[in-house]
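name: query_chain
kind: protein
chains: 1
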Amino acid sequence: MAFGIGREELGSWKRAVDGGEIAFLTHFWIDERFPGVTSVTKVGCSNLARLEEWCRSRDIPPKYIHRRDRYPHMDLFGEVQERILREQGLNDHLIRFKIGQQG
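structure:
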């Protein structure tokens, strides 16, 4: 279940993905398959070759890309999510979704 984002933010991400940009969307997320995980970052791009290269350059296996989705993307959570958000300078995502904060 996703929550914590608005239509405008989601729409901006979709437009960026459609436009072939590497786009980031973080939201609160609860999935019983991943206990303790409270957020996910979707890294999307309609240009699959570009998204695959983006993954490889960050030691993330491209096999985890959701390719059949209307908006191809990779889901990041946990330590990888935090590392990538820091690398991309997306501190607002870290703060807003309390990623990497103890307690």
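note: The chain is about 35% helix and 20% strand.
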